[in-house]
From TrEMBL:
Keywords: Leucine-rich repeat, Repeat, Signal. InterPro entries: Leu-rich_rpt, Leu-rich_rpt_typical-subtyp, LRFN, LRR_dom_sf. This is Leucine-rich repeat, immunoglobulin-like and transmembrane domains 3b. PANTHER family: LEUCINE-RICH REPEAT, IMMUNOGLOBULIN-LIKE DOMAIN AND TRANSMEMBRANE DOMAIN-CONTAINING PROTEIN 3, SYNAPTIC ADHESION-LIKE MOLECULE SALM. SMART domains: LRR_TYP. Coiled coil: none annotated. Transmembrane segments: none annotated. It comes from the Eukaryota. Residues 1-19 form the signal peptide. It comes from Cyprinus carpio (Common carp).
Length: 230
């Protein structure tokens, strides 16, 4: 058999594995994205190994949806809840998806987040809650997502950020607070976003047009200059 046929056969087998349809919640769609990685090919006796890497995305985008589905697939790496009528996120709402990396809950009607909404999501990297009705955020709930890097809270109703938020933002490198109702910020801005030294991981805070935006930028600039001069 010509060596090129091995590649074709490998791809075929990989597609068969990745094309297996997972059980999908009602009013949602599930999409598998996969690629193959073939190793150990032998021309003489047709021996080869195939590894298929499949990633599952779950999209729930239906105005008739009023609650997080309970039959979520356990192997999902991305969950998108968009433009639904969901208003409350209860404790452990996503705990059935322990491999989740991306959680987008954007442009719904969410006004209540349980402090333990994100239990069993220790691998989560990105959490987006843009375009909801949150007047408060359970910052202590971020203890359940130690690998979180991106937190999007754009276009909500947040009026203040408590100083205690600092202790739960240590690993977050991108924080979007724009288009909220922020009129005050913690007096000690370094508590909210620590800049301990010039070698620290680059971080971004998006505040948008708030009364404190310009003063915040000036203070961050001064802190950076001070760190560089030390």
């Amino acid at each position: 058999m010509h060596p090129l046929l091995y590649g074709d056969l490998t791809l075929c087998l990989a597609l068969v594995v990745c094309a297996q349809s997972p059980s999908c919640p009602s009013l949602c769609t599930c999409v598998l994205h996969g690629r193959s990685n073939a190793k150990g090919l032998r021309y003489s006796n047709l021996f080869f190994q195939v590894r298929c890497i499949c990633k599952l995305t779950v999209l729930c985008k239906n105005p008739a949806l009023t609650a997080i589905p309970v039959d979520l697939p356990s192997d999902a790496v991305k969950f998108r809840l968009e433009r639904t009528s969901v208003s409350r996120i209860f404790r452990g709402a996503f705990s059935a998806m322990p491999e989740l990396l991306y959680l987008w809950l954007t442009y719904n009607s969410i006004n209540v987040l349980h402090p333990r909404s994100f239990t069993n999501l220790s691998f989560l990297h990105e959490l987006r809650l843009d375009g909801n009705l949150l007047s408060s955020f359970p910052w202590e709930g971020l203890r359940d997502v130690p690998r979180l890097r991106t937190l999007g809270l754009h276009n909500n109703r947040l009026a203040r950020i408590p100083p205690l938020a600092a202790r739960y933002l240590a690993n977050v490198t991108y924080l979007d607070l724009s288009s909220n109702r922020l009129s005050t910020l913690p007096n000690d801005l370094t508590a909210l976003w620590p800049f301990s030294d010039s070698t620290q991981t680059q971080r971004s805070v998006v505040l948008g047009e708030t009364p404190h935006c310009r003063s915040f930028v000036r203070m961050i600039t001064k802190m950076k200059k001070a760190n560089v001069s030390q």
